[in-house]
């Protein structure tokens, strides 16, 4: 079982770099669906990901149909959108026999509307006040969702505590 964050045509290198860092710290795989709005050699992308970029398993997909074709029959896909009616916290991610994929839309336009309409049963949202903001930040949204997934899975292979001796890290 593996968890995957999938970014559809991301535009902002800092968001992608921050998400890559979250992936490195949580053993989550990152998928980037092209076209990208930046080069992966971009200095801002590497700065946001710091020295973690090489510690992330990244898969590039030429477009959305190619990504969809890469999914296996036992994989679970979730579309993260503010237009969904079901909260991300209502879904059950505990099945360790499945890979879980969380597809996030482009920062400016989200996921394509026809694709969303055809897959409404897969849609989840992070509750927010839509009157005050248009949407939550992409990298924050990815972190919120992946940590709920990991919580339900009891944080597999992640360090949950640090040992202290005399108020200092051991």
Automatic annotation (TrEMBL):
Organism: Liquorilactobacillus mali KCTC 3596 = DSM 20444
Compartment list: Cytoplasm
E.C. numbers: 2.1.1.207
Main location: cytoplasm
EC main group: transferase
Domain spans labelled tRNA/rRNA methyltransferase SpoU type: 4-147
Residues noted as binding S-adenosyl-L-methionine in the record, renumbered to the chain: 80, 105, 126
Family the entry assigns: Belongs to the class IV-like SAM-binding methyltransferase superfamily. RNA methyltransferase TrmH family. TrmL subfamily.
Pfam families for this protein: SpoU_methylase (PF00588)
GO biological process: wobble position ribose methylation
Catalysed reaction equations from the record: 5-carboxymethylaminomethyluridine(34) in tRNA(Leu) + S-adenosyl-L-methionine = 5-carboxymethylaminomethyl-2'-O-methyluridine(34) in tRNA(Leu) + S-adenosyl-L-homocysteine + H(+); cytidine(34) in tRNA + S-adenosyl-L-methionine = 2'-O-methylcytidine(34) in tRNA + S-adenosyl-L-homocysteine + H(+)
Protein name, per record: Putative tRNA (cytidine(34)-2'-O)-methyltransferase
GO MF term list: identical protein binding; RNA binding; tRNA (5-carboxymethylaminomethyluridine(34)-2'-O)-methyltransferase activity; tRNA (cytidine(34)-2'-O)-methyltransferase activity
HAMAP family given in the database record: tRNA_methyltr_TrmL
UniProt keyword list: Cytoplasm, Methyltransferase, S-adenosyl-L-methionine, Transferase, tRNA processing
CDD domains for this protein: SpoU-like_TrmL (cd18094)
SUPFAM superfamilies found in the cross-reference section: alpha/beta knot
Summary of the function given for this chain in its UniProt record: Could methylate the ribose at the nucleotide 34 wobble position in tRNA.
